[in-house]
Amino acid sequence: MSEQHKHPEENEQDLATDEQSGSDQEQANTEEAVQGIEELKDELAKAKEQILRKVAEFENFRRRTREEQSQLVQYGNEGLIRELLPVVDDMERSLEAGGEHKDFESFFEGVKLLRNKFMSVLQARGLKPIETDGEVFNEEYHDAILQIPGSGKEPGAIIDEVERGYMIHDKVIRHSKVTVAADESGEE
What is the pLDDT of residues 86-137, one digit of tens each? Predict the structure, then answer.
């Protein structure tokens, strides 16, 4: 029989079967969607857990870095201080000996030795005195505290060093304070 000539009961049966298979298909699609959602939820939970771990690791890293920097600042001069302790020991021995012996000449020589030892420790760390003897005033290295006209030297020549200047490697940490020759009119 053709579809047009089927009994109404058969048509209803076919419709019910179609509805049943459509309903089965919808249920299967829904179950797949629910399963996909559950998988996405699991992936999201794993991603959140990884992010939280990374955040915690980063916070621990920042804390350790801050502690290391703090220790570097606190103990950064330890090596220099260790190198200077023998100089301090020599100063103490010199003071004790100076109290017992009144020989000024030997005390003076001892102080010179201490100064040389102290400067050698600092020079090993990169300290260099700024030369002024026979030099011309240079504002990058010198501070002129006085200009002297009629000194018999060329204007701008350094006459005297009042306070020695120093550099660490190539950086000026204290300018030399100097007196400078000026021309007869008092201008540099």
Answer: 888 888 888 777 777 777 788 888 888 989 999 999 999 899 999 999 899 9
Q: Which two tokens stand for residue 168?
A: 């660490």
User: Domain range spanning residue 95?
Assistant: 77-125
Q: What residues contact residue 107 under an 8 Å CB cut-off, 6+ apart?
A: 94, 97, 98, 101
Burial class (CB in 10 A: 0-12, 13-18, 19+), 52: exposed
* Integer angstrom CA distances of residue 121 from 20, 79, 80: 96, 11, 8
pLDDT, tens digit, 9 for 90 and up, residues 10-58: 555 555 555 566 677 888 788 888 999 999 999 999 999 999 999 999 9
165 and 129 in contact (C-beta within 8 Å)?
yes
Q: Are 188 and 137 in contact (CB under 8 A)?
A: yes
In this structure, the answer to whether residues 48 and 13 fall within a common structural domain is yes
Asked if 22 and 81 sit in the same domain, the reply is no
Cα–Cα distance, 13 to 11 (Å, whole number): 5
For residues 92 and 44, membership in a common domain is answered with no
d(CA 104, CA 98): 8
Same domain, 119 and 159: no
pTM of full prediction above 0.85: no
133 and 115, same structural domain?
no
The domain tally of the chain equals 3
> Token pair 């020589």 is at which residue?
109
